[in-house]
Automatic annotation (TrEMBL):
Keywords: Carbohydrate metabolism, Cytoplasm, Hydrolase, Metal-binding. It is an enzyme of class 3 (hydrolase). It is found in: Cytoplasm. This is D,D-heptose 1,7-bisphosphate phosphatase. Its EC number is 3.1.3.-.
């Protein structure tokens, strides 16, 4: 019998889980969760979702923060999720500056493809939540499904338009969780008898 693939949800960090800052999140103190996002993450985690972050952190490549600071920020994130009974399975980040020409900085699909490989999920089954066009483009380029939230830059991203085909739009991460966990619309739910 074929084993069901794990349910994997990829999340952008800034503007999805925590408030975005145009001047970068430079310390654990500047990492401020968006209301309801940690509860949503924890709910999805307890429901069996693998949750993996894919975040551009060019503040590293620009020399604005170092790895010790990024690790301290992510330690705070992990702790906050754990306090609500949830678990982030991994954090993938691109540390490179925008002009480095790397394969991992979104909108390139490198991180999404790496995550799919690491967690043995076909890229076509990858869902990714983001607030910027480059998040949606990264998952679309990998062959997965883009989910846009209106938090962070999301409302502006929606207003600008030209979203990748098949993009679904939600008010925030809590609304995404509600949609994924609602049995009737769950992607794995069996078709309804007619
Ligand atoms: Mg973002
Ligand atoms: Zn990179």
């Amino acid at each position: 019998m074929k084993e069901a693939a794990p349910k994997l949800l990829i999340l952008d960090r800034d503007g999805v889980i925590n408030e975005d800052r145009p001047d970068f999140v430079k310390s654990p103190e500047e990492w401020v969760p968006i209301p309801g996002s940690l509860e949503a993450v924890s709910e999805l985690s307890r429901a069996g979702y693998l949750l993996v972050l894919a975040t551009n952190q060019s503040a590293i490549g620009r020399g604005i923060i170092d790895m010790a600071v990024l690790n301290a920020i992510h330690a705070k994130l992990h702790r906050a999720v754990a306090e609500l009974g949830g678990h982030i399975d991994a954090i993938f980040f691109c540390p490179h500056a925008p002009d480095a020409g790397c394969a991992c900085r979104k909108p390139a699909p490198g991180m999404v493809l790496d995550i799919a490989k690491r967690f043995h999920v076909p890229p076509a089954d990858c869902l990714m939540v983001g607030d910027s066009l480059r998040d949606l483009q990264a998952v679309a380029a990998a062959g997965g499904k883009p989910l846009l939230v209106r938090t962070g830059n999301g409302a502006r991203t929606e207003a600008k338009g030209d979203l990748p085909a098949g993009t679904q739009v939600f008010d925030n991460l809590a609304a995404v969780a509600q949609w994924l966990l609602k049995p009737r619309t769950h992607p794995d739910a069996p078709a309804r008898d007619v």
